[in-house]
Automatic annotation (TrEMBL):
<keyword id="KW-0819">tRNA processing</keyword>
<protein>
    <submittedName>
        <fullName>CCA tRNA nucleotidyltransferase</fullName>
        <ecNumber>2.7.7.72</ecNumber>
    </submittedName>
</protein>
<keyword id="KW-0460">Magnesium</keyword>
<dbReference type="InterPro" id="IPR002646">
    <property type="entry name" value="PolA_pol_head_dom"/>
</dbReference>
<feature type="domain" description="HD">
    <location>
        <begin position="260"/>
        <end position="328"/>
    </location>
</feature>
<dbReference type="GO" id="GO:0008033">
    <property type="term" value="P:tRNA processing"/>
</dbReference>
<keyword id="KW-0808">Transferase</keyword>
<dbReference type="Pfam" id="PF12627">
    <property type="entry name" value="PolyA_pol_RNAbd"/>
</dbReference>
<keyword id="KW-0694">RNA-binding</keyword>
<keyword id="KW-0548">Nucleotidyltransferase</keyword>
<dbReference type="InterPro" id="IPR043519">
    <property type="entry name" value="NT_sf"/>
</dbReference>
<dbReference type="InterPro" id="IPR032828">
    <property type="entry name" value="PolyA_RNA-bd"/>
</dbReference>
<dbReference type="Pfam" id="PF01743">
    <property type="entry name" value="PolyA_pol"/>
</dbReference>
<dbReference type="InterPro" id="IPR006675">
    <property type="entry name" value="HDIG_dom"/>
</dbReference>
<dbReference type="Pfam" id="PF01966">
    <property type="entry name" value="HD"/>
</dbReference>
<dbReference type="InterPro" id="IPR006674">
    <property type="entry name" value="HD_domain"/>
</dbReference>
<dbReference type="GO" id="GO:0046872">
    <property type="term" value="F:metal ion binding"/>
</dbReference>
């Protein structure tokens, strides 16, 4: 088997081997190349010590010198070159206390997480596959190198990585590996929220985000997202639904485009349902105000997972609006659409419609066609509103605070109250957004406020 290696990576390997050292590309870049994917980066493993690597190349960066990693710069592109090593004891399920450099490629590959990530390659020796990685790639299996429990005791994040790779590659987790996750899932408590967040996002934006179900069934979500466990266990006895809250959520995540904000929104959009569930006298379940409760809960969950403030804001805005029911714009005009566009913002409104569509498609067939038809008409109304340049914000009003001051209205509170009243009116009747009319109405409102 011959893999296509970037010229710069091949040059680094050639330089190292020319000076008597072993060197190979290793890990994910080998896996992805075999699968016909374009690797995002190319890591190199070598028998050369860090100081020996630095001596051979003009520009290097000590990115992880303690653990044997030197970044070699080639025309502004960095390649991580890491010395063969054996990891010492892991006491915190996160990182080894120390590492020992070795001259054995086998010992270096033995410390890696999964067989599909434990293959090495160079043009001279071809593929080095000591643990059955090729067989597992062909069978579509995520399997640990050696004893799975040992690998997860070393670095607990590997459990979530197993789920992530299963989602990205559409593989299944090998049974012994899966059982070890179930037994060791509590070790994930020792892993930082930042590292968990990165794996969660990679899984969510993969082609198969529904693989998140494995994180629940192996106990991982009970550690970092226990709210999801409640969702999976909450029935929805309601004609609009045919799944538990959690299963509905997984279907909805799968049905929306792989945008981080949209996928996070779908993962969390019904997180408030377990807390708001009631059952009426006919045995029908209801979840009143779950969107409002869910937005508050989502803010706490995303903060706990160390997401940035902008992402938290956007996701929570979408969740708090996702249960709006649009009336048919054909019959009721565009006024309700304008009001929602004003509330959530014209830029975020298309995201909201995508969230609503995924939500509907993950429900039962009950009135589904009608719901989707109304959403389609809402898309049309949204585009017409934009084309007509209807007033949606205070900035769009054809009168402003300075103009009100020129009319003799000086009080700040009065100016704010008048402008908001005018905006509410124009959202209902955009044709009234003309200065002469707004001026007269503003003076009338001002006189009423002073009485």
């Amino acid at each position: 088997m011959k893999l296509s290696i970037p010229k710069q990576a091949a040059s680094i390997i050639e330089t190292l081997t020319a000076h008597g050292y072993e060197a190979y590309v290793v890990g994910g870049c080998v896996r992805d190349s075999i699968l016909g994917k374009t690797p995002s980066d190319w890591d190199i493993t070598t028998s050369a010590r860090p100081e020996q690597v630095k001596a051979l190349f003009a520009r290097t960066i000590d990115t992880g010198i303690k653990h044997g990693t030197v970044t070699v710069m080639m025309d502004k592109v960095g390649y991580e070159v890491t010395t063969y090593r054996i990891d010492g004891d892991y006491e915190d399920h996160r990182r080894p206390n120390d590492v020992t450099f070795t001259t054995s490629l086998k010992e270096d590959l033995m410390r890696r997480d999964f067989t599909i990530n434990a293959m090495a390659y160079n043009d001279a020796d071809g593929l080095i596959d000591l643990f059955g990685g090729m067989d597992d790639l062909e069978r579509g299996i995520v399997r640990c190198v050696g004893a799975a429990k040992d690998r997860f005791d070393e670095d607990a994040l590997r459990m979530l990585r197993a789920v992530r790779f299963a989602g990205q590659l559409h593989f299944r987790i090998e049974e012994d590996t899966r059982e070890a996750i179930r037994l060791c899932h509590e070790n994930l408590r020792d892993v930082s929220a930042e590292r968990i967040q990165m794996e969660l996002l990679k899984l969510l934006i993969s082609d198969h985000p529904e693989t998140f179900r494995e994180a629940y069934s192996t106990g991982l979500t009970s550690v970092f997202f226990p709210e999801f466990d409640r969702m999976m266990e909450t029935e929805q006895k309601n004609p609009h639904h045919c799944y538990t809250v959690g299963e509905h959520t997984l279907h909805a995540v799968q049905l929306i485009e792989p945008n981080p904000v949209l996928r996070l929104t779908m993962l969390l959009h019904d997180v408030g349902k377990p807390a708001t569930k009631t059952t009426d006298e006919y045995g029908i379940d209801h979840f009143y105000n779950h969107y409002r409760v869910g937005a508050d809960m989502s803010k706490d969950i995303l903060k706990r997972l160390k997401f940035d403030n902008k992402t938290i804001q956007l996701v929570c805005q979408l969740i708090s609006h996702h249960d709006i029911r649009f009336r048919d714009p054909k019959k009721n005009g565009r006024r309700h659409v304008r009001k929602v566009m004003h509330s959530i913002g014209a830029n975020l409104f298309p995201y909201l419609l995508k969230v609503m569509e995924a939500d509907v498609r993950a429900q039962s067939d009950y009135y589904q066609a009608q719901k989707l038809s109304i959403l389609q008409e809402t898309w049309v109304a949204y585009e017409e509103i934009l084309a007509a340049k209807d007033c949606l914000t205070l900035k769009d009003l054809k009168i402003n605070g300075n103009q009100l001051k020129a009319l003799g209205i000086r009080e700040g509170k009065a100016i704010g109250a008048i402008l908001n009243t005018l905006l509410s009116m124009v959202l209902e009747h955009p044709e009234l957004n003309e200065y002469p009319y707004l001026k007269e109405l503003a003076l009338k409102i001002y006189r009423q406020l002073r009485q």
